[in-house]
Structures are given as C-alpha cells and as structure tokens.
Amino acid sequence: MLDLNQKITSIYGVGETRARKLDKLGIKTVKDLLYFFPRTYKDLTRPQTIASLKVGEDAVIEAEIVTIAAGRTRRGFVVTNALVKDDSGQMPLVWFNQPYMARSLSQGEKYIFYGKVDASKATRAKQLNSPVAERYAKIIPIYPATAGLSSKQWRVILAGVVAPARDLPDYLPDIIALREKLMPLGHALRQVHEPSSMKLLEEARRRLAFDELLHLARQFMDFERDIHLRQAPAINIDASLLKKFVSRLPFKLTNGQRVAAWLIIKKMSAAGKTVSPLNCLLNGDVGSGKTVIALLASLGVIKAGYNAVWLAPTEILAQQHYNTVKELTDKLRINVELVTGATKSKISRRPTPCAQLIIGTHALLYRKDTIGNIGLLVIDEQHRFGVEQRRELLREQARTGLIPHFLSLTATPIPRTLGMLISGAVTLITLKEKPKERKPIITKIISNTSTFCHSEHFD
Fold it and tell me: Where are the alpha helices (DSSP H) in 385-435?
C-alpha cells in the first residue's frame, strides 16, 4: 500500500536536486505530491477538423502524418516540418529546435496534436507551431510551470504515485459518502491527475472540495473553541473621551458607523477584569468609513492602558492610515508610530512612553517583542496576511495570560472568511451607507504617457 508519509526522493524521477526544488513548494512527502493538483486541463477527446481551424485560436486535431523531416537553417537552428491531413484537408506543423520530433513521430500514423493556430510568414496559410503530440485522445492535466518542471515532467513524476493511490483507505464514513454521493478518496485522487472523462473529473473535484471544506470546518470549530477558552482584557470605556473625539471630527458619523462602533465597544467591555475576546469582521465598501470605527475602538483600548496595533498589507496603505490617524488625533496627545520596512523609527521596549497606537506592515510581525501589551489588533484586508503569522503574534501576547481583541477590516470577504462567518467563529458587522461628505470613488486606467491635471479622491 502507498505510504503517504514517504519522502518524495523515493519516487522515480525525484533525486536530491529536484527534491530541494520541490521542498520550496512545500512538497516533501508522497501526500504533498498527490495534493499538488493541476491548474487546468486540456480535453483532447473532441478533436476539430483542420478546415474549421482559425488563426489565433487553440486547436486540437486528430490527423495522419503525410510527411515529416528535420532540417537545419543557415543560422544553425533545427526545424522539423510535417504535413498532416484529416478528412477535411491538410496543414503544416512546425517544431523549432526539437529534432527528436522527427524520430518520435511516424509517417502514415495518426496522432492527436494540440497547440495554437498561427499563420505562416511566407504563405499566410494556417499552421501549428510546436504543437504537443499525443498518441491517443485523452484529457491532459496541465500543471503549474514551476520548480523548473514542465507539465509533462510533472505527469511523469506523478505517474509513480497516482496508480497505487486508488487503493488508499478512505477516512470518510460510508454513510456520509453514500448520502452525499461522493467518490472514494483514492479514486478521486487518481481521477484528478489522470481523468478518464470530464464527468469523472468533476466528480473527483467535488469529492476533494468536500474534503477541503470539511477540513476548514474542523479548523473553524477548533478556532472557535480556542477563542472561547481564552480571555481578553475587559476594556473600561471612557465614554466622555469618545464623545469628545466624535464631536471634533470634521465630518458626521453615519448611523451605521455609530451602531458598528457601539457593538464593537460593547463587546470589549465588561464589569470584571477579563472578557471573551472580540473577534469581529467589519465589512464595507471603500469609503464607507471603516477606519474611523477602528480608531474609535483603538482610543477606548488606549485610554484603558493598552496598546492598539494596526496591520496593513502595503506600505502605502500603512502610511495612509498613519496620516489619517495623526490628523484626527492631533489634539488628543496620542503617541502614534509608523513601522514599515522603509521606516527607520524604532518602538521603545519600555511599556511607557512607547507608542500607544502602532501602525505598520509585516515588518511589525518580526518585532512583536517591542510593541508592548496589545489590547486590540486591527488588520486591514485580513486575507492578505498569513494565518500563521497572525497566530504567532497572538501567541506571543497570550504568554501574558490574555490575548488581544481582534478586528478585521475588509471590502472583499473571501471564502476563508466566509467560512469562519458561517461557522460562527467571527461576528460580522456590515456598513451599508457612506458618509454624505465623502467624495465619490473614481477608478481609472492611466497609461504611461498620461499626466495628472487635477487631484482625485482615492480611498
């Protein structure tokens, strides 16, 4: 039986050099290799006629080789020319610097050819340049061209593990597999790499998608259980400070912003010293005012004696947040720091007077011992950060006995986030209205030669 934990060096075609390349892709074992799926497929079971082909389109034909020969150009390049035919007509095929094609293909034999239809520079007639040749009609898996391996090389390597994968034991109970009409795991793994038909391929992908969703659901359940077992600091909110801050804003909060801020602050508040951690996703279109809500929550945490940390996916966005926060908190005497790979500022290791609100990029994750006691962690566009990176930051804080409250800002929820919402692990708050004073968001395509004649509002 196939050992999924066996190292990939045990597979035919994988030596130490190739194993090191695969290791960079996270492929270390037979299981990792089996779960390295094709990015797409080429269906060769439905060939077209030569007469129906159009220049610029991808084509699949089943044709007989009339003539084939390799020759050398004046510049020393080897060019293999073939003439093929089917019932509708003939067309030339050309391979550049592939002399072996003349030896591997036989005159009078039929093959499946697929490639892009080009026009001959000399005659403008249709031809296939460097088409792939297959002996039989089948569905070809196309793997990512990575680790220095072509799609064909990937197929050769996988051939040694795909066939025995069919006999792998299935962890899924029969009652569930029958109820959901799911293909056995081993059969699904073989079909996804060597599909017998498009119908069986779709069934295999459905089974593997079910496994992935089930795995995610289990992760979410574990995450939710872990969150409920942990505690975060109870934030004693200074209502007068927040009211004073809101009254000085250069714009009026919408009802949606007020409700969202109140829900978040209420979740972090408690009569005792600790409370279940806030784990909230604030969703709203660009310009809906998510930043000011995060700032309100941060001010409440800072006033209670904790630090607030904001993580942004890019230095530009981190700088934008920093400028906005500095402007809005100018008269509140809040110590705000910007930490990115490009900044030279360093956060003090002392609890005071270190930065109270720290805004940065991934660079912050590598200086987690310098950011003090976090009461609130805000992540903008949370899908742009690795889950393990965030967990490490939270794990570092948990050593003190408490973890920070967690607030995500996003305009584009993704499947992982949606799954967490469905499982109940995350509370969703949606902003449906935009501030009246907000300028419209303008999206433009600007060429290299364009010049700016006036300023636009981008958020």
Answer: 387-398, 415-423
